[in-house]
Design brief:
Strand order of the largest sheet: 1-2
Strand content: under 5%
Number of helices: 6
Radius of gyration: 23 Å
Helix content: 55-70%
CATH architecture of the largest domain: Up-down Bundle
Number of strands: 2
């Protein structure tokens, strides 16, 4: 997801640069991108849509780089949902009002769709290894069975790094 958000950030950065520099957007679809970029729907309340996208991708990336907690996953889900919806609206305008498709905008729409679906799955799945005590994973990330002892979750002197209170809290969370 971080990679996709970074690519989306690149697309939005390029389109924002094109808007403010006044150069012509590179487009393999002929004049379609220029038509979209100069349409009345290329701004919202005077703010370029590309800049709104840039800020959106920065926000999504920040939420992905935040510590993995329910709040950060919910923030990512909310931001990608808003981006997905706004991108859907802009795609509608491209198809039915402007009658041209900008390949940069279409790529951003695809990126936001994949990010939204991924954020939804990530949110519903919850935290990674949420029920596993710290250090309870063995080789290849397998979770050790409850009560198993060994180097990964030893309860003796070698594994004494976990406090007795923490061990009790971890056991209380097990089913």
């Amino acid at each position: 997801m971080i990679g996709l958000a970074t690519i989306g950030l690149g697309v939005a950065s390029y389109l924002t640069y094109v808007h403010y520099s006044g150069i012509t957007v590179v487009c393999t679809a002929g004049e379609s991108c220029i038509k979209v970029q100069t349409s009345e729907w290329s701004k919202l309340a005077g703010v370029p849509v590309a800049l709104i996208g840039l800020l959106g991708y920065v926000s999504i990336l920040a939420s992905l780089l935040a510590p993995d907690r329910e709040e950060s996953r919910l923030a990512t889900l909310g931001l990608t949902f808003i981006g997905f919806g706004f991108s859907g609206y802009l795609t509608y305008r491209e198809l039915f009002s402007i009658h041209a498709i900008c390949e940069w905008c279409a790529s951003s729409a695809v990126i936001l769709t994949v990010l939204f679906v991924s954020a939804l799955v990530r949110y519903l799945a919850g935290p990674v290894n949420a029920s596993a005590p710290a250090g309870a994973s063995g080789p290849a990330g397998a979770i050790a069975p409850a009560g198993a002892s060994g180097p990964a979750n030893a309860s003796g002197p070698a594994g004494a790094s976990a406090s007795p209170n923490r061990q009790r809290r971890q056991r209380a969370r097990l089913p």
